[in-house]
Design brief:
195 residues; mainly alpha; two-stranded antiparallel sheet; 10 helices; globular
Length: 195
């Protein structure tokens, strides 16, 4: 059992311990998690998936991501904003996604709200909450990685103020981690972008 420090993977490279529980995680950890994500649709997808993940394991969402993309029109805000009650019924019957009524309704409502924003506003708002890279030292163990920060709390409030749902501070922080606003790869991790 890991003590929360970086662990050697099958290739001998040190990684965050959570990344080694399944090959799906290794790929996601090495190639996506913590890498900068820009663009309103791309960030809407990540925000939506983080909301669906609430209360579940991320692997559950990761393994259904293609199903989510198919079900939600590639997470194109303009398309999801036009979804109707018939689409909601279709989504509630789709075994390829998490069929949670409140989360489906929130995703549709969020798309409708975002469709009213100026293009680029979501990207600008989210990235305006990125802390300075030097603001926090690289975590040495998983115990050094927070679940919520002042920045994620502020981001959550800003998103809610603009009409978005299922964007609490913990979800906002998970988004910040996944989209590269913060680098929470452990200090010894091969995927860490900076020393």
């Amino acid at each position: 059992m890991s003590d929360g420090t970086a662990v050697a993977g099958p290739d001998g490279a040190l990684r965050c311990p959570w990344a080694l529980s399944t090959p799906d995680y290794v790929t996601y950890h090495d190639e996506e998690w913590g890498r900068p994500v820009h663009g309103d649709d791309a960030l809407f997808e990540r925000l939506s998936l983080e909301a669906f993940q609430s209360g579940l394991s991320w692997i559950t969402i990761l393994r259904r991501r293609e199903g989510f993309r198919a079900a939600f029109a590639g997470f194109e805000i303009a398309k999801v904003a036009t979804f109707t009650d018939a689409d909601k019924d279709r989504l509630l019957a789709d075994a390829g996604i998490i069929r949670n009524r409140a989360k489906i309704e929130a995703t549709m409502a969020n798309a409708r709200a975002l469709a009213e924003w100026t293009p680029g506003d979501l990207d600008d708002l989210i990235w305006s909450h990125a802390p300075a890279p030097a603001a926090r030292p690289a975590p040495k163990t998983l115990a050094d990685v927070p679940a919520v920060t002042p920045e994620s709390t502020a981001l959550s409030k800003a998103l809610k103020k603009r009409g978005l749902r299922f964007v609490g501070p913990t979800t906002a922080y998970a988004l910040m981690q996944a989209c590269g606003l913060v680098d929470d790869h452990l200090q010894a991790c091969v995927a860490r972008s900076a020393p």
